[in-house]
Amino acid sequence: MTGERELIDLARRLSRIVMVGTVEEVTAKPPRARVRIGDAVTAPLLWVNARAGDTRTWDPPSIGEQVLLLSPSGRTEQGVVVAGIYGPDGEANGSSLTEARTDYPDGSWETHDEEAGDRGLKITGNATISVDGDVTVITKGNATVQADGNVEAEAGGDVLATAGGKAVVDAPAIELGGTDGEVVTTAHPCAYTGSSHMKGSSIVKAGG
């Protein structure tokens, strides 16, 4: 009888080493998830992230997400949760074999198409990039910055802009700082003589 009980216990443990379930509950502190398998719900268990050493990632599973439960020796209380199994309530968010895509609940997304080499990013909120060193942006094509609001650029030192062609500034009004109030272009007529200013730039064109 003892041997029979041991075989039954061994079979039970083997059947519990790898199981598929759905996330029932998630906590951030401590990072734990409870998994529902049939009518049973596990104790709070750790989930697997991409990295957890000097480099760390944080991507908790979602309630209702289908997951894999790995239980060493068939003991679910020692199990770990591996998220990311598509299921009836988690259909695939892509259909291309060459594009990686991540979608977020707020509508933000990021994509990378390894065949075309394209990268896409949408952020529904604000974006902040903080760099302690220098920043260099190089493109072999055109660069466009479009904002529905204001665009501000502030430098603690000099500002240098170099163009191989024309530099065009089109605005209803243009204000230039400085204390001398010098004329920018010789095309501007003198308020006293009506003639073109002698002092000014001959390559700057203003007012059409």
From TrEMBL:
<dbReference type="InterPro" id="IPR013046">
    <property type="entry name" value="GpV/Gp45"/>
</dbReference>
<feature type="domain" description="Gp5/Type VI secretion system Vgr protein OB-fold">
    <location>
        <begin position="20"/>
        <end position="86"/>
    </location>
</feature>
<dbReference type="InterPro" id="IPR037026">
    <property type="entry name" value="Vgr_OB-fold_dom_sf"/>
</dbReference>
<protein>
    <submittedName>
        <fullName>Phage baseplate assembly protein V</fullName>
    </submittedName>
</protein>
<dbReference type="Pfam" id="PF04717">
    <property type="entry name" value="Phage_base_V"/>
</dbReference>
<feature type="region of interest" description="Disordered">
    <location>
        <begin position="91"/>
        <end position="114"/>
    </location>
</feature>
<dbReference type="InterPro" id="IPR006531">
    <property type="entry name" value="Gp5/Vgr_OB"/>
</dbReference>
